[in-house]
Amino acid sequence: MTNSWMFKKSLEIRFKKIMKLCNFSLGMNVLDVGCREMQLSKYLPKDIKYNAVDLEPKDKKVIKIDLNEQKLPFKDKSFDYVFCLEVLEHIHAPFKVLSELKRVSKKYVIISVPNPYHYRDVIKHILKRPDKQGHINSFIYSNVWRQCEDLNIKIKKVKGSFFLPFWPCNNFIFTRHLIYLLEV
Fold first, then answer.
1. Residue 183 pLDDT > 80, yes or no?
2. What is the pLDDT of residues 121-153, one digit of tens each?
3. Nearest by Cα to 173 from 115, 130, 108
4. Mind listing the domains of the chain with CATH numbers?
5. Nearest Cα residue to 90 out of 114, 57, 62
6. Is 87 helix (H, G, I), strand (E, B) or coil?
7. What is the pTM of this model?
8. Would you say the C-alpha torsion 150, 177, 134, 97 has a positive or negative sign?
9. For residues 88 and 74, is the Cβ–Cβ distance under 8 A?
10. Which residue has the higher pLDDT, 89 or 80?
């Protein structure tokens, strides 16, 4: 499934939307938390310093970390942008991790989480189908807003990542992922 054309296209669209939220300048330092195969690095400008952590690193450059057990191994305010894409829904204490993302960021954190109101997830919930993707948390906007407020983080923008790349509208029930630009 993860190698399907639709998955690859939706991933490409999501990363392009994420890049539009960023205002990079020469020599910026970024952190990709839960980087998987480091796909984000392919969309970054060449002069950006890319750092990555993951539970199961697939590259020697990636630092192994279990976000359920460990803090990020970086000093406070180390990165211009911190990305945490499709990770928080797999974490036992996601808002503790959000606090860590804030700690290591100079200014911006970008998170992406599944939209719990996407029509497929609503249907699965109604039919009581089990989650097969390892999601242990769900994020509705009001919970994200409240946690950000508690951590003194501002939500600057929220964008949808659309599951049908060729569909012209951006209807909420068709938005598969929610992308938050946070200012710390």
1. yes
2. 656 666 677 666 666 667 777 888 899 999 999
3. 115
4. 5-183 (3.40.50.150)
5. 114
6. coil
7. 0.85
8. negative
9. no
10. 80
